[in-house]
Amino acid sequence: MKIRVERDVLAEAVAWAARSLPARPPAPVLAGLLLKADGADGGSLSLSGFDYEVSARVSVEADVEEDGTVLVSGRLLADISRALPNRPVEISTDGVRVTVVCGSSRFTLHTLPVEEYPALPEMPTATGTVSGEVFASAVAQVAIAAGRDDTLPVLTGVRIEIEGDTVTLASTDRYRFAVREFLWKPETADASSVALVPAKTLLDTAKSLTSGDIVTLALSGAGAGEGLIGFEGAGRRTTTRLIEGDLPKYRTLFPTEFNSVAVIETPPFVEAVKRVALVAERNTPVRLSFEQGVLTLEAGSSDDAQAVERVDAQLEGDDISIAFNPTFLLDGLSAIDSPAAQLSFTTSTKPALLSGKPALDAEADEAYKYLIMPVRLSG
User: Fold this and answer.
1) Over the stretch 136-171, which tens digit does the pLDDT of each residue have?
2) CATH superfamily of 126-250
3) Torsion angle of the four alpha carbons 342, 346, 351, 355, in this order, in degrees rounded to the nearest 10
4) Closest of 55, 36, 56 to residue 46, by C-alpha
5) Helices 74-83 + 7-18 axis angle, to 10
6) CA dist., res. 310 & res. 292, Å (int)
7) The whole model's pTM is what?
């Protein structure tokens, strides 16, 4: 192999491909990045990583003098690529060594055995496309509610449901439930699939694909590629294994009738929750008391530090006092990403529905819903 590639192009590609390499690989070769130079069609360099769960492959333009394939330590190559001066990079192989030359910098790396490297899984057939920005935003809104307890793997996933031109993402950790719908362009009008994707992998992938205008989702049916989902955009391609199982039936959990609906400007609400939560001991709630025109926030106990703050609020329906985990509440307020927040209640012991509004007097945005369980107050 002998190639020449721009330093920034190489550094970005290596960093992206190496991001999913395992910290403790089950086999030494899985710590490697597979570099493949191909002189056809103007010349390209592809970099691939795989840990049997997640695969990543990126292709960039390169001047290819000599085709070839080589396997090198991914993390070491990423560190070197980041540190190189801003000059063109030449990569060449000589037996079991790879030489990286950039300006006056020269590195020699040992190769790993290519023949022991597993074949990357094939991308499933494309299911449809969506704007990279819309996809990344939707995934970020939903992934916050996914569980982090690996002993309950189903709850660590984001459920992707495809029905025609609508995609619905959902996740829960049992204390809150986030759901986001968006429109996309399916390959077939009657496209219908359900998959449970690891939330962390999905979030990392969605963030990394925002530089491309369009993201392709590829979700396999029965047969080749079963149990995989693929994402592709801007010359980057990722596949990941699906989680077996499904989330609890959630649509019936979302109430449709409410006794009280409150609307608050989001920025002052967020700041007030943050200040009041400073005195909330670990796992203790922030109490919210809604009356017409005002919301009173309280935290702490009479035996310890206390905090009280009031912010303006519109209320339709009955006065209500309710308590929430402040972290879960703040997660939801940041996820709605709207100037105004709408909280809809049935009772103080039933889950509340949080949604965003572009203005205090506007209709609520139905595309994103965040259901949050209240904390029962003693006494």
Assistant:
1) 999 999 999 999 998 999 999 999 999 999 999 999
2) DNA Polymerase III, subunit A, domain 2 (3.10.150.10)
3) -20
4) 36
5) 150
6) 12
7) 0.91
